[in-house]
Specification:
Layout lengths: L1 H9 L6 H50 L4 H12 L6 H16 L9 H7 L1
Helix pairs in contact: 2-4, 3-4
Length: 121
Amino acid sequence: MAALDKILKSGLMTLTYQRFTALLLLIYGSLFLSGIYHSVRVFCCATARMSELELEQRTNIKFLVKLGKSGNKIREMLVHVCGDDAMKKTEVYKWLKRFSDEERSGWPATIRTEENIAKIC
């Protein structure tokens, strides 16, 4: 303590109110900004992870629809694999409907009919 008093009295380190305030602002400002950075980073990582998980589940739903699984069975499988992070039942059914409609849309499997054959010949 005596050494600190000597330094302060010698004038080498005069700690004025302005310098003290600036030092506090610098310390608290850097802590505040690092806290914001950390919060934003955690949020972005969680968002990216959730999107990745949702994409994985949608892919699984599409695959299971092609295998002919029902909505309840798909939801049950997702809960078994993903636990609490599994999609809600309404989301599963939304994707189930979309993927089921996707399979039915488009060109028919075959267009060979008697009428078409007659038109060509």
